[in-house]
Specification:
This protein is of the alpha/beta class. The protein is 53% helix and 20% strand. Strands 1, 2, 3, 4, 5, 6, 9 and 10 form an eight-stranded mixed beta sheet that branches. Strands 7-8 form a two-stranded antiparallel sheet.
Length: 224
């Protein structure tokens, strides 16, 4: 895992073949610290690789897994737009980060699948996100048997937003479009979208009205 700082914001490279653990979690947390301090721009993560069963077996303990899951959750809730560009086989950490991103760009050779360990698929929170985003019917074969999604299948099912023969160029274009969408307003809308998956209309109405009121007040402040 490595971080490069470019004009459009930090770029993190993640090898999905590595075992989940404190090092991965620390690198992702460091990225979150950096972008929160910057307060503007976009966050780009490039992912590829899938762990072998040996790599999964090398995970120290469930505490190490918990640190990774907390880091991914923090990434998922950043106040800046997050972009993940995925290529080749993507499992493990690569699988988790793709499903946690706002904007997802796939190379044409993408094969997306959860890691397999022992007698079943690795039961991390990537499976939770997959079911949330596809529903049980759409996710069942991958959750139970680790069946992969090709780039075309991922696009058709909404797991990625674009399949590109030139992911780097597509990321740059997305970054230019998303520069204005950062800060608390993005975080609020993302949370409203998360909550809409389980809240009733009546329970959600107050939160949406509060967000509308905030938006109107901020718009008037900007006009002054």
């Amino acid at each position: 895992m490595s971080i490069n700082t470019l004009t459009q914001g930090p770029v993190l490279h993640v090898d999905g073949g590595r075992e989940l653990g404190a090092d991965l979690a620390r690198s992702l947390s460091d990225l979150c610290d950096e972008v929160e301090a910057a307060g503007a721009g976009c966050v780009t993560v490039r992912v590829s690789g899938a762990p072998s069963e040996k790599a999964v077996a090398n995970v120290a303990d469930v505490a190490a897994v918990s640190k990774w899951e907390q880091a991914v959750r923090r990434f998922e809730r950043l106040r800046l737009p997050t972009i993940v560009a995925a290529s080749g086989e993507c499992g493990g950490a690569a699988f988790d980060l793709l499903l946690a991103a706002d904007v997802r760009i796939a190379a044409t050779d993408l094969r997306l699948f959860p890691a397999v360990y022992g007698e079943g698929v690795w039961p991390g929170m990537g499976l939770f996100r997959l079911v949330q985003q596809l529903g049980l019917a759409g996710a069942r074969r991958s959750v139970l048997f680790g069946m992969p999604f090709s780039a075309v299948e991922a696009l058709e099912r909404g797991l990625v937003d674009r399949v590109s023969t030139d992911p780097a160029r597509t990321v740059k274009a997305a970054t230019r479009l998303l520069r204005r969408y950062s800060g608390p307003e993005l975080a609020i809308r993302r949370q409203l979208a998360f909550d809409a998956q389980w809240m009733s209309f009546e329970d959600a109405l107050g939160q949406h009205l509060a967000a509308c009121d905030r938006s109107l007040r901020r718009g008037r402040e900007l006009e002054i």
